[in-house]
Write a structure and sequence with these properties.
The structure holds two protein chains of two kinds.
Chain A: H1 2-29, H2 45-54, H3 61-71, H4 91-126, H5 131-145, H6 148-162, H7 180-214, H8 217-224, H9 229-251, H10 253-266, H11 272-281, H12 285-313
Helix pairs in contact in A: 1-12, 4-5, 4-7, 5-7, 6-7, 6-10, 7-9, 7-10, 9-12, 10-11, 11-12
Chain B: H1 8-24, H2 34-44, H3 46-69, H4 100-136, H5 138-153, H6 156-167, H7 172-183, H8 185-199, H9 202-209, H10 214-251, H11 262-271, H12 282-305
Helix pairs in contact in B: 2-12, 3-4, 3-12, 4-5, 4-7, 4-8, 4-10, 4-12, 6-7, 7-10, 8-10, 9-10, 10-11, 10-12, 11-12
The chains are: A mainly alpha, B mainly alpha.
């Protein structure tokens, strides 16, 4: 197992290297430059030349790529990921400060989804084609078809702007005391957006996975030998039905990240996704590149996690 | 339940053939061809049939109405600001005097065009990469699959935002290409898997033994057999592409006004949410309809195209 994990991590290095090269060339070969915003105004050409020199934009591209890739892994240095073009702060520090907020949003989403979607899925499978199952199916289908940004937009408009129950944007009240209670207050709407979408999806997966298991022979055997139906369901069936769910969870990291990025942008939730989108708008190269790398690492770790969990929950799988 | 009356012509033809077979003992003509079976299985899927109907309505409306109304989707008439619904404007006029219904249809056209064109790129690139990887195998397969890993490892939505923002915000073609170049990996994997299995299949071996060239084996012999999962993935991909385009336009990276898009109509509606709150629902409802239609169509096609689910004829 340890050898397997190690091999997977080693395999990830060339992938990350290619992501780095690809991202670098997309960023640098695109038309436009971060100093464009200074041009044509009252900024003198010498100052612009100084800025170009300061950010080392005058060096040949391969050399820039090399110096970026070699310093990037040195995360013990505060300047390893460079300094932001917009606020001049170390990118490493900014990203580290945004991670907890994204984790809070995604963690709340996952926790509530697990608690709500798994029982809903079981209910739908056990009482297949009942009124409850049909209601859940219809609601889940509509919930799943709703684009995240539109759902977030409606939730924000109705509960934030029209009813004024919850704040419209941000993670803390401006000029407030930044208390945990204030944070949770701001969390309600963005988290609900993500929860609706993910509950809709995961309850479907859970239902079909449970149905698949309930059709198996060993469930019929367990029933035939007279086990209580709750024991059959929760001990025999549920454990096996959760296996594909656990795997899907690891593989859904990119979708989760994208959903979180859209939700964060709609609610101006100052997490990683919001930072990434803002960095793209302002052409803040160091932040954009760091964001792509962090995203890539999270996706690769998610896939690895899926495989490890797969082996952990299913004794038939060995690496 | 007996469905033979659904296809009277084919049953008659088959009946005649069967009558002939009684004389000749062995009849190798299939009672129904693959596509006849597909059609039958598809039509039995009630939701998929409704979805096909809905998609046909949406596509027709998105083609015909903007053609018939010309530039009316962007024409403002200040005397008609917030005018209530009428016969030529079933949803009324918005706060700058634009016919809401006509603009919605123009936006739907943009969304569907982006969706279909992006899926075309996805299918062409995905099928090519997958077919080459699966057919050639070895180092080429390994390299192409590592490329798939790399593309899959970047959160695709962010990659799309990056491409669109850096290359040309507001250009529909950039949006289409960005969705296309990030979305082909699933199709490539599916086709590669099919090709790996088909490469050793008897009919492919037979074709090779007859001296058929590689190109012809790939295009005429293997591709038709591997296409079913791609058709399904492509149909589902339309839903995803339409949503991505709307999201991009909503965030300000995609289609820009005065061109209409379901996403930028929502951005506009956001500014007038207190005076005309209903405007935030129309574009979204259309999006949900497109997504639902494409998903159920995909589900129905999956059930219909899978030859392992042979219908008792």
């Amino acid at each position: 197992m340890a050898i397997y994990v190690l091999r997977r991590i080693l395999q990830a290095i060339p992938v990350l290297f290619l992501i780095a090269v690809g991202a670098f060339f997309i960023v640098r070969l695109a038309p436009g430059s971060p100093v464009d915003k200074f041009r044509g105004g009252r900024v003198s050409p010498e100052v612009i030349a100084n800025i170009i020199k300061l950010y080392q934009l005058d060096q040949p591209l391969p050399q820039q790529l090399w110096s970026w890739i070699t310093t990037f892994p040195q995360i013990w240095r505060i300047d390893a990921w460079g300094y932001s073009f917009t606020d001049g702060k170390p990118v490493l520090q900014t990203i580290a400060s945004r991670v907890p907020l994204t984790m809070l949003l995604m963690g709340t989403d996952l926790l509530v989804t697990a608690v709500v979607a798994i029982p809903l899925g079981i209910l739908g499978a056990v009482r297949q084609y009942s009124l409850a199952d049909k209601t859940i199916t219809v609601l889940a289908t509509i919930g799943y078809a709703m684009p995240t940004f539109w759902l977030g937009f409606i939730i924000r408009t109705v509960f934030g702007a029209q009813l004024r129950w919850f704040p419209l944007f941000g993670a803390y009240t401006l000029g407030g005391d930044q208390s945990p209670l204030d944070l949770l207050w701001h969390l309600v709407l963005p988290a609900s957006t993500l929860i609706v979408v993910s509950v809709a999806g995961w309850s479907r997966y859970m239902r079909s996975s449970m149905l698949e298991v309930l059709r198996q022979d060993y469930i019929r055997t367990a029933r035939a030998k007279g086990l209580a139906s709750s024991r059959v369901l929760y001990k025999h069936a549920l454990r096996n039905a959760l296996i594909p769910i656990v795997t899907l969870f690891g593989l859904s990291i990119p979708i989760l990240l994208a959903g979180a990025a859209v939700t964060e942008t709609v609610f101006s939730w100052p997490g990683l996704g919001y930072l990434g989108v803002q960095a793209v708008i302002t052409r803040d190269y160091p932040t954009v590149l760091a964001f792509v790398m962090v995203g890539g690492i999270m996706v690769i770790l998610g896939n690895l996690l899926a495989d490890i969990l797969y082996a952990a929950v299913d004794p038939r799988i060995k690496y | 339940m007996d469905h033979t009356e659904l296809l009277p012509l084919t049953t008659d033809a088959a009946g005649e053939r069967r009558a002939a077979a009684e004389i000749d003992e062995v009849d190798l003509t299939p009672v129904r061809t693959y596509w006849q079976l597909v059609r039958r299985r598809f039509l039995q899927h009630r939701l998929a049939t409704i979805a096909l109907f809905l998609m046909a309505i949406l596509v027709t409306a998105a083609v015909v109405i903007p053609l018939a109304t010309g530039d009316a989707f962007g024409r403002t008439d200040l005397t008609l600001i917030n005018h209530p619904p009428s016969l030529i404007a079933p949803l009324g006029y918005d706060n700058i005097g634009i016919n809401i219904f006509i603009r919605l249809m123009a936006a739907l056209q943009t969304s569907l065009m982006v969706g279909f064109m992006a899926v075309t790129i996805i299918v062409v690139v995905g099928v090519s990469v997958g077919a080459i990887a699966g057919y050639v195998g070895g180092v080429v397969d390994n390299l192409l699959m590592r490329l798939v890993d790399v593309v899959l490892s970047v959160p695709s939505f962010f990659l799309i935002v990056m491409l669109v923002a850096f290359f040309q915000t507001g250009n529909m073609w950039v949006v289409v290409i960005a969705i296309g170049v990030t979305g082909w990996t699933t199709a490539a994997r599916l086709v590669r898997g099919e090709f790996l299995a088909l490469r050793e299949a008897d009919f492919v071996q037979a074709a090779r033994a007859l001296g058929v060239g590689h190109r012809r084996i790939i295009l005429n012999h293997m591709l038709p057999a591997a296409l079913a999962p791609v058709i399904v993935a492509g149909t589902l991909g339309i839903a995803d592409s339409v949503v991505v385009e709307a999201t991009l336009s909503f965030l300000g990276f995609g289609i820009q006004p005065p061109n209409a898009s379901l996403g930028n109509m929502l951005t506009h509606a956001q500014d007038y949410v207190f005076r005309n709150p209903i405007l935030i629902y129309y574009p979204g409802v259309l999006l949900v309809l497109v997504v639902l239609a494409a998903s159920f169509l995909g589900d129905g096609l999956r059930d219909a195209l899978d030859p392992r689910q042979r219908l008792e004829a």
